[in-house]
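Lab notebook, bench 4. Still working through the backlog of constructs that have no structural model yet. Next entry is a single chain of 282 residues. Request: give me the structure tokens for it.
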Amino acid sequence: MTKGPKRVVLITGASSGIGKVTAELLAARDHRVFGGVRAPATTRPLAGVEFVPLDVRDEASVKACVEEVRNRAGRIDVLINNAGVNLVGAVEETSISQAQALFNTNVIGVLRMIQAVLPGMRRQGAGLIVNISSILGFIPAPFMGVYGSTKHALEGLSESLDHEVRALGIRVVLIEPYYTRTNLDTSAAQAENRIDAYASQRQRTAAVITHNTKTAPEPKVVAEQVLRSIEGPYRMRRPIGQAVLLSWLRRLLPARLFEPSLRKAFALDPARKDAAGMQPRS
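Model written out:
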């Protein structure tokens, strides 16, 4: 990996978890790092990181943040879309307002940031947009279906965008972690409308998710992959850990071979047979 010229980096959700560790690592590599946080005055300082006010849910806040970074640094070379929230519960249990709020942060928030930085990147003729996705961007997410759908949307948005902007000198990267030990899962919101039919299954699957999160690697492994995407050779999709194997299996295996392993991994009950004695299509 070559160090190359230092970049001006703007990262969203920099106050904790993956965002915090990534901001610290990039600053330690002498990149000029601006960390978008909701309340800079009350956020614990990070060495070498300049905090700027940012709420990705608010278009005026997004535009003001990008303008401030440009005024202070003259340019933005790298945007890292890291801010995100989680939601646990069955699709049927999730209220429409919860789903809208989740998409507003995880998808529309990313879109706001991208649209705000692209004019400057186009003028520069160069730029990199790094989107923090997940294995749930390419595999099913039982009892996190709405959250998983935001990551599937992010993957589609990123790949489409990359085709639109690469001739302008701009590229898009997807970072696809497996489980990561952060508060995103342990403090996740719960679906509002609890339905008894899902209760026992939901509890078992949630226990698996909690266990895997608590025993997962630290955010540093994600931060290091972000660093490689900035300083190393370009590669659009960057799965991490077990996500590397899962991404291959998802593409190569037929559903009848892939899905039983997935259901076992999430502690899901066997599918019922329908009235005609046929196994319903998964």
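Notes after review: The mean pLDDT is 89. The chain is about 45% helix and 15% strand. Flag for follow-up if needed.
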